[in-house]
Design a protein that fits this description.
Layout: H1 3-16, H2 24-28, H3 35-46, H4 50-67, H5 72-78, H6 84-95, H7 99-105, H8 126-133, E1 141-147, E2 153-162, E3 165-172, H9 175-190, E4 208-210, E5 213-219, H10 230-234, H11 237-254, H12 269-282, H13 287-299, E6 306-309, E7 318-321, E8 324-328, E9 335-338, H14 339-357, H15 369-381, H16 388-409, H17 416-431, H18 439-445
Antiparallel strand pairs: 1-2, 2-3, 3-5, 4-5, 6-9, 7-8
Length: 446
């Protein structure tokens, strides 16, 4: 049994015995590790000391059951706390807020089991974050995790407060990811776009390192994803067009980036084609879809212009000022790719929001999404005209994004809702393919 398998076995045992006493002997099982070596391996793999991890899991499960209707004292007792006051104190120490405040801030879902084989993952305690923040001048307060617009809680971004101003503390798993994020932000500023300027440490550094992690601090910017209903923003034609216009301006400045191995293309179409078997397994799309898509990859895709792109321009990364889109955040995923990828991704992020918020409906985007999609493209083209091949490729780039999402999200237990939503989206998009602009011209060319 490998070290990772040993720690995974311990994680599984913890999950199945959270309501019982858990001893070191139970966790180490039949391995020959010493207690100190096992604890070292556990913290290295998970990011938290073993007992702190167990405590966190008990707190989250107790909160989940309270949210589902169980009395607070009953849930607290069930997960090993002698009193509700004891649970309350432990919760505040671990998460920096009361259980009721946590429920207001975040969507309370069933805690998903950590799978080391399935995902890269690290956990960071509030105490560790306070130690990291000590590298910057000032007394930071109110540390809390960032929640994405889809309800998922980020495990690598936190909102902190200093003298009434809010900042974002972000963690990257290596310096390459961090440097990939910083250069595009600086280029944004040269174009006059709103950007996430780095707040330097007291030693005038852009970031600090702790083990394999790098931490950097930026001023908190308001984003579209923080609005009560981001859809209402996009449904105003001028707003959707503004997103397209800012993407065009962003692409202009990103052409000046010094390209290197940091930005090597990851979504090559041969890689995407290799993901099609997973889509076939998950969805009952007709064979015509696959034939048409594969034909596009050979006939039109090679003619599409590429450059450095954002690659994740979803509503949680779009900066708002005075009610308008003015820039973008978080370039960790930036790579060389097709420029229409960003346009299509901005639009499909809105579509995903519609499906996530209306899971009980078969087609929540009917009559809503295509005008938004059209206006994002219209805004982009007002500054950066698309080629004929790009126009004809837009639907297929939307399909490409959905193929990537369906295959990716199906790899992770915690993204089950996202996987189901993206499967429904792809089916709906194919069924409504005639609503895409240029659908007639594509048929004529063929």
């Amino acid at each position: 049994m490998t070290k990772t398998e040993t720690i995974q076995k311990a994680i599984d045992y913890i999950e199945e015995n959270l309501r019982s006493e858990i001893t070191f002997e139970d966790l180490i099982g039949e391995t020959h590790f010493s207690q100190s070596y096992f604890m070292y391996l556990f913290q290295e793999a998970v990011g938290l000391p073993c007992m702190k991890y167990i405590n966190r899991r008990r707190l989250l499960w107790a909160l989940f059951e309270m949210n589902a209707g169980k009395k607070g004292i009953d849930a607290a007792l069930e997960y090993g706390y002698d009193t509700y006051a004891g649970f309350f104190k432990a919760f505040r120490q671990e998460f920096g807020c009361s259980p009721s405040t946590y429920r207001k801030r975040y969507t309370i879902g069933k805690p998903h089991r950590l799978n080391l084989q399935q995902e890269g993952h690290f956990m960071i305690s509030n105490q560790k974050l306070k130690t990291i923040l000590a590298h910057w001048d000032g007394e930071f307060e109110n540390i809390r995790a960032v929640k994405y617009s889809n309800g998922i809680i980020a495990d690598s971004m936190w909102v902190v407060t200093l003298k009434g101003e809010r900042y974002i503390l972000s963690a990257c798993t290596n310096e390459v990811s961090l440097k990939r994020c910083l250069e595009p932000s600086r280029l944004e500023e040269t174009e006059g776009l709103a950007a996430a300027a780095v707040f330097k440490t007291r030693d005038d550094l852009d970031y600090v390192t702790d083990g394999d992690l790098c931490f950097y601090l930026t001023k908190k910017r308001r984003v579209i994803g923080e609005m009560a209903s981001p859809l209402e923003f996009y449904r105003i034609p001028e707003n959707a067009q503004a997103v397209g216009q800012i993407l065009a301006r962003l692409h202009r400045c990103l052409r000046n980036a010094s390209l290197n191995e940091f930005y090597e293309e990851t979504d090559r179409l041969e890689t995407v084609l290799n993901r099609l078997p997973k889509v076939r397994q998950a969805l009952s799309l007709p064979e015509a879809f696959y034939l048409e898509y594969e034909d596009w990859t050979k006939r039109l895709a090679p003619k599409l212009p590429k450059q450095l792109i954002h690659r994740d321009p979803n509503e949680s990364n779009i900066i708002m000022e005075n009610g308008k889109c003015t820039g973008f955040l978080h370039f960790e995923l930036s790579r060389v790719g097709y420029r229409i990828f960003d346009l299509c991704y901005a639009a499909t992020a809105v579509l995903c929001g519609l499906y996530m918020q209306n899971e009980d409906k078969k087609a929540p985007a009917d009559g809503i999404w295509f005008p938004i999609y059209h206006n994002i493209i219209l805004g982009y083209e007002s500054l950066e005209p698309l080629t004929r091949e790009e126009h004809q490729s837009l639907p297929y780039m939307v399909y490409t994004i959905q193929i990537i999402c369906v295959s990716y999200f199906n790899n992770y237990d915690k993204f089950e809702r996202m996987a189901r939503a993206n499967e429904k989206m792809l089916l709906w998009l194919w069924e409504n393919r005639e609503a895409f602009p240029d659908s007639q011209s594509r048929r004529t060319d063929e």
